[in-house]
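Side project, low priority. Logging it here so it doesn't get lost.
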Amino acid sequence: MRPKVHHYLYHHFPWQFFMAVIFMLSSISQQNMPGFVEKFSDKFLHFVVFGILAVLIWHSIKNSRINYLHQKAAAAAIIFTSVYGIIDELHQILVPGRICSTMDWLADTLGALFFVVIINYFWRKKTDRNKIYSNGGQKEPVTSRDVK
């Protein structure tokens, strides 16, 4: 497989596919919803599903070829997911048996915030540890003035 195709399929396709799945599921009338959905709280499902979407978007931005976005990946993923939550809720107005709910949107946004904060925390911890090990156990990068 060509490197660009592999890069796209691994880093960028997952969140786009996941958004399509969310759109498809929110197009189903409430009475035709799969049985397992009824076992969970509606808000909990919104929280988890949009949290996963935000992590997939965060991962995509972190691995994009646009370097200046890497520092803003967490904020961009949360904002993008929140906006998609609004679009999803507005879309549900058109679906029979579904309603637009600001509480669902709030659960979407809080899920995105929670999941991205957690993943970003562990990612930073991992990269900080890698910097320490790559510098021979020193916390600061070695410079020419440190060497005598």
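Brief comment: The chain is about 65% helix and 0% strand.
Revisit when time allows.
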